TrEMBL record:
InterPro entries: HAD-like_sf, HAD-SF_hydro_IA, HAD_sf, PGP-like_dom2. SUPFAM superfamilies: HAD-like. Pfam families: Hydrolase. This is Haloacid dehalogenase.
Amino acid sequence: MIESVKNIIFDLGNVLVDLDFQRCICAFQEIGGTDIAEIIADGTAESLFLDTELGHIDAAEFYNRVRKLGKNEATDVQILWAWNEMLVGVSVEKKQRLLALNASHNVFLLSNTNDMHWQKCANDFFPYLHFGVKDYFQQVFLSYEMHLKKPSLEIFSEVLSAANIRAEETIFIDDSAENCQSAASLGIKTFHNVNVNDWLALDFKS
């Protein structure tokens, strides 16, 4: 049982949203982007992804750079579809658990993400019955809006300040050990979510 916790900060990918990188690679191959699929697979496009996560480029620039890197003429719609194929969804069980936790704790989201992926999640994955994003989280902190990225200490400090919460009363749940270590250095409790559904077994005392 996790005690003395008033605040829960969730990561998005591989914590709430299931991810499938191979599905994304296959989607780019399907639209004729074999080169970009290979670049995604071998990590060459990391700087492009970093720019999107930090909000340094918008969707239009992302599409143009994908076309240039992939040496193809795929449309914006095709590229967006292939890019979003990385995202599998949020289970009903997780949405129900988030709603229950939000009734007893202060629940927040902190994600290294980009505008395209976030819009997909917010519009297609989180809606449930009459609930939406605002019903799960008191505040949402996104790297592309903050121009900061985990595991920087600055992004965690900014969240604590903006949410007006204390580190020692907070737990951070993330699939990255490095991100957890960074949060822990500020006194935040952490849970390393090794497998996407591990956090569902946590027992939070209200």
